[in-house]
Amino acid sequence: MNPVQLLQAKLELKFDGIIGKKTFDAMQKEWNLNGIQLAHFLGQCDHETGGFRIFEENLRYSKEALMKVFPNRYNPEKAKNHEYKAQLIGNTVYGNRMGNVNSNDGFNFRGRGCIQLTGRNNYTQFAEWVKDMSIIDSPGQVADKYAFDSAIWFFQKNNIFKLCEDISEKNIGVISKAVNLGNPFTIRVPNGLKDRIEKTIKYSKFI
Predict the structure, then answer these.
(1) Please, is 98 exposed, middle or buried when counting C-beta atoms within 10 Å of its C-beta (0-12, 13-18, 19+)?
(2) Which of 19, 53, 77, 155 has its CA 20 to 30 A from that of 37?
(3) Are 93 and 73 in contact (CB under 8 A)?
(4) Nearest to residue 36, comparing CAs of 192, 155, 154?
(5) SS3 string of the chain?
(6) Contact at 8 Å (CB) between 30 and 39?
(7) pLDDT digit of tens for each residue in the chain (207 aa)?
(8) How far is 175 from 157, CA to CA, in rounded Å?
(9) Which residues does residue 117 pair with via DSSP β-bridges, in sequence order?
(10) Residues 6+ apart with CB under 8 A from 65
């Protein structure tokens, strides 16, 4: 089962993988959120996972993609040697930061979950929050069992739920900046803003 189905099963719902009114209402009760907060949360998660399909970062980049996505980490020669080598790429771009201190931490603690939890520090803080330290030895759990919980933790840690005031495009933009750029007040435009707006509005119809 995918993370949506796993959560539906936990909430004793029909686990069809579709987030409709019944699932929305059950999620709201489970996480103690108001409708506006949940619509924003689901809209962002829906976008970040490509429609609740991708819950783990794919690091198999081509040499061209490596140069574009990680310009400060790759030159043409290095990109050619690393292309499509996920483990090597993960350890190169995430190694020695975000608490990644061991040789394979960059790959092991790559982005997972509905909001792409990344780095040993974040995994450790989340594991402590959810009271399951087995996550550190088995981080893949964040891509299935804890996909939604890790995103709830991210929203709470960064005080994003407090910013969910209404379902206006302006407010969706603020939430999108907080999620995608780490700063709700930056003048930069977050990636995929149009899709984030459409998906948040879609879930707001269940309020």
Answers:
(1) middle
(2) 53
(3) yes
(4) 155
(5) CCHHHHHHHHCCCCCCCCCCHHHHHHHHHHHCCCHHHHHHHHHHHHHHCCCCCCCECCCCCCHHHHHHHCCCCCCHHHHHHHCCCHHHHHHHHHCCCCCCCCCCHHHHCCCECCCCECCHHHHHHHHHHHCCCHHHHCHHHHHCCCHHHHHHHHHHHCCCHHHCCCCCHHHHHHHHHHHHCCCCCCCCCCCCHHHHHHHHHHHHCCC
(6) no
(7) 999 999 999 999 999 999 999 999 999 999 999 999 999 999 999 999 999 999 999 999 999 999 998 999 999 999 999 999 999 999 999 999 999 999 999 999 999 999 999 999 999 999 999 999 999 999 999 999 999 999 999 999 999 999 999 999 999 999 999 999 999 999 999 999 999 999 999 999 999
(8) 14
(9) 112
(10) none
Q: Which tokens in the block code for residue 110?
A: 């790559």
Cα 23 to Cα 101: distance, rounded to the nearest angstrom: 40
The answer to whether the Cα torsion of 151, 58, 2, 109 is positive or negative is negative
